[in-house]
Amino acid sequence: MALAASPPPGCPHAGPARRTVVQAAALAAAGMTAGLAPTAWAAPAPAAAAEPARAGATPDALPLRTDRQSQGDILAGFRKDHACLLFLHFGDADKARHWLSRLLPSISTTEEVARFNRAFSKARRRSGGIDPESMATLWTGLSLTHPGLRLFAGKEPFPTAPPGSNAEAFTQGGAARAQQLGDTGTSAPQSWLFGAEEPGRAVHAVLTLAADQPERLAAAVAEHREGAGAAGATVLFRQDGATLPGELRGHEHFGFLDCISQPGVRGFDEPDAATGTSVLGKPGTRLIPAGEFVVGHERVGQRPTGLPAWATGGAFQVVRRLAQDVPGWWTQVALRLAELQRKGSAPADAGREWLGARLMGRWPGGMPVALCPAAERLPDPGEHPDAKLDYSDDPQGWRMPLFAHIRKGNPRSGLVLAPGRPPVAQADLDARRLMRRGIPYGPVYQPDLGEGHGPEDSRGLLFVSHQADLVGQFELVMRKWLNDPDFPAGRNPRTGSDPVLGPDSPIAFETPSSEGGGSRANTLYFGRFVRTEGSVYAFSPSLPVLQALAKGELDDSIEFHTGSVLRPGDVLDAGKIRLTLDSSGDLVLFDDEGSRTWHSATGGIGHDAVLTQDGELVVRNADGRPAWSSGTTGHPGARLLLRPAGELVLLKGDRVLWKASAS
Q1: Nearest CA to 92 among 166, 46, 151, 34?
Q2: Do the bridges between strand 505-512 and strand 626-629 make them parallel or antiparallel, or are there none, so unpaired?
Q3: What's the CA gap between 606 and 626, in Å, rounded?
Q4: Using alpha carbons only, how large is the chain's radius of gyration in Å?
Q5: For the structural domain made of 21-49+556-661, what CATH number should be given?
Q6: With contact defined as beta carbons under 8 Å apart, do 439 and 462 qualify?
Q7: How far apart are CA 191 and CA 321, in angstroms?
Q8: Could you count the other beta carbons within 10 Å of the beta carbon of residue 40?
Q9: CA atoms of 334 and 336, how far apart (whole Å)
């Protein structure tokens, strides 16, 4: 893709195009899925750029497991059988801050959730797979919407919200972006239960409570409702969720085992020494850079976030209530199966699970259809269902259909952007993964159980995901992958939308031709039987940021994180001040009128810019050697902030190490 034009040398008053690094990433993602050339941000840093380990440094091999600042549901996961989400609206900012200050001690951190989960898993293994009743706890999480952040901070949380950026998506919220996410018709915001309220009643906060015991959860919910009410808050909506009982434990309402394919996280999950790229004990589960889920850590391609300092240590949260019409979906599956059988494209003795598994991509017990296409096989004890799942040798989708829900949402190593082209490397798709924390709601569909279990009763999935990039992760997966009938692109007939979550769409059911060497495609029409009934974009701040918000404070400086790389054309935009590495390799600071107020004088020799682990801002040449430096080495943990007031500053705590001013 073409990069935005930079001002030619000798034109100090010509500012850079307003294309932030967030926009660049979003455009790159769109380009990749459309089959365009690799983008600039995905290029590796110079080989010589790798920093040697500091003498005497002995970092914990899994440092994120001891993180006491980030909220625990993001990386560790609450993983409880019972959950309740309260969607809150506050009428008074001071009372809301007082409520937050009292809530803070109960917020669960990554360290405590990870420690409990590890101990729980060990106890469960010792008991032969039975949950230890003596181990039970309650977890608490808090996320804030854009109106909520603005209320607590007393100001706009973003210095600017450029088109295509995370700031724009978060500021607008799920209801305003419903059209592009496929939330239309019966899924349109007009019928939502939460997330589409009038501005005067907007959701400010989402309080998540999760527990092993329903009695303990009920008591906590009552206590928090009382506390919120005392702070003048209104509970706009209460959403309960619970693991399905009996043989459906771990399944969603259509009957399929859920949340199998979760990403591993570098620095949190133990790596398999044999591969170095996968999680120990979970073959096929790739380790993803932590910065794809928690803002401020290393990201794929070392891309800058372009986000304010308050986002560091937190994650964007998407909450969606997805109603499932169980009998309607399975009736549709049976009808489409009959069509295939009449055409000789499905076994005459196949039951509806045969086709249902191909739509989902898995059999109800969790095994992918690609690994056992003829009939379901339950995983052996200790076997991870996806251990051998790979689409690279199935570009046509004959074993795992291209429209299958799990393939649409995670193409793995089998994404071919256009017929005849080689698959996209799986590592290039790591930046699209989501950390999902969903849970079913409502009673199982089992009419023979009597009242409360029939088709008229409300049931579905409470979808919750954490990610560092709303646009490049959640929205891209929804728009460009699940909902787009032309993904993967360039096929005739078109693949079709996801037949589980997507909109009404014909799909191309392809099977190898009997003559060999080709395929035959049957077009099947699938209507929508999963309906969106609510959607909220929120953010789960770190504990230090929540503490600041309780005082009415919020740092809206744009942060350039350690290890991130600025490449030519990238722009960090703080509204009244912008930092860019221009096309000549010069690191330049511009004011709001486009005047160049400071530069590194590296035009013609600069290749990229990085903030090192040792606290030094460096412009590097093509060989990875310094072309310019802030001269601040020896300060690990230093932070580089682009302040809206007009300065670029390197800080260690409150101490200024280096500064460039727009004045």
Answers
A1: 151
A2: unpaired
A3: 9
A4: 25
A5: 2.90.10.10
A6: yes
A7: 12
A8: 17
A9: 6
Residue 36 is classified by DSSP as -
Q: Which amino acid is located at 30 in the chain?
A: A
Q: Which H, E and C letters describe 185-216, residue by residue? A: HHHCHHHCCECCCCHHHCCCEEEEEEECCHHH
Residue 322 amino acid letter: L
- Centre a 10 Å sphere on the Cβ of residue 153 and count the other Cβ atoms it contains: 22
Structural domain spans, the chain: 21-49+556-661, 72-144+203-242
pTM attached to this predicted model:
0.91
What are the average pLDDT values for consecutive 10-residue runs of the chain, which has 663 residues? Answer: 32 39 43 36 39 39 96 97 98 98 98 97 88 92 98 97 96 97 97 95 98 97 98 98 96 95 96 93 92 97 96 98 98 98 95 98 96 93 89 90 96 86 88 96 95 94 98 97 94 94 94 73 96 98 98 98 96 95 97 93 97 97 97 96 96 96 70
| Tokens (6 digits) for 367 | 């095994």
Distance between start and end Cα atoms, the chain: 35
Can the peptide bond before residue 488 be classed as cis, meaning omega within 30 degrees of 0? Answer: yes
CB 530 within 8 A of CB 186: no
Which string of DSSP letters, residue by residue, matches 377-397? -PPPTT--TTTT---TT-TT-
DSSP 111: H
Give me the amino acid identity at 7: P
The H or E element that residue 230 is part of is helix 214-230
H helices present in 288-421, as ranges: 326-342, 352-360, 405-409
Say which residues have a Cβ less than 8 Å from residue 353's Cβ, sequence separation at least 6: 363, 364, 376
